[in-house]
Specification:
CATH class: Alpha Beta
Number of domains: 1
Low-confidence stretches: 1-24
Oligomer: single chain
Helix content: 10-25%
Structural class: alpha+beta
Largest sheet: 8 strands, antiparallel, barrel
CATH topology: Nuclear Transport Factor 2, Chain: A
Shape: globular
Radius of gyration: 15 Å
Mean pLDDT: 88
Number of strands: 10
CATH architecture: Roll
Strand order of the largest sheet: 3-4-5-6-7-8-9-10
Strand content: over 45%
Order of helices and strands: EHEHEEEEHHEEEE
């Protein structure tokens, strides 16, 4: 089961505004760059965009689209916003008990939470269970840090290593 904290901020559909005014910025929701990436993401997996997040992977600005495909499978499709190029495709599974996740899981969710919060102390707003392009399973945590920064942290479910940590600037929609 996907876990989400129902904060009042989610009622507006936007979180992690940070220092960037995403309504007028070139990377804003519904900007030309956004629309081009959305089209590319939907070409990979046709369906409905449930949520989009704008984040920096290192210094690379990206959009991550959560798409429910026509066959009902959920996908995270990440697009490099400057190049309009799909750079990652991950399958979201509904729980740690999904066979694709369960077969690879060596670290339980409590351990993965502790690892993520040790790196980025704060409040976990959302957890997703993902199958990476190479078949590895990972826990993905959206953390609102105590310093006021939104972080997306992925913990490998087999090794407990943090495999990705990115600053999330904004989010539209929710699951």
């Amino acid at each position: 089961m996907r876990v989400s904290l129902c904060l009042s901020v989610f009622l507006t559909g936007s979180v992690f505004a940070g220092g960037m005014d995403h309504k007028s910025d070139r990377y804003s929701y519904q900007s030309e760059l956004y629309l081009a990436c959305e089209k590319s993401a939907l070409n990979v997996h046709a369906g409905k965009v449930l949520k989009v997040e704008f984040k920096f992977e290192g210094v690379q600005p990206t959009y991550e689209f959560d798409i429910r495909a026509l066959d009902g499978v959920d996908w995270d499709v990440t697009c490099d916003s400057e190049k309009n190029k799909i750079i990652e495709i991950e399958e979201e599974v509904p729980s740690v008990y999904h066979p694709l996740f369960l077969d690879r899981k060596r670290i339980d969710e409590k351990q993965a939470r502790a690892i993520a919060l040790d790196a980025w102390p704060g409040d976990i707003l959302e957890i997703e269970y993902e199958i990476e392009p190479d078949g590895a399973a990972s826990y993905e945590f959206d953390i609102h840090t105590f310093k006021g920064v939104g972080m997306k942290v992925e913990v490998d479910a087999s090794t407990g290593e943090i495999v990705e940590q990115n600053e999330e600037i904004w989010q539209e929609g929710y699951e």
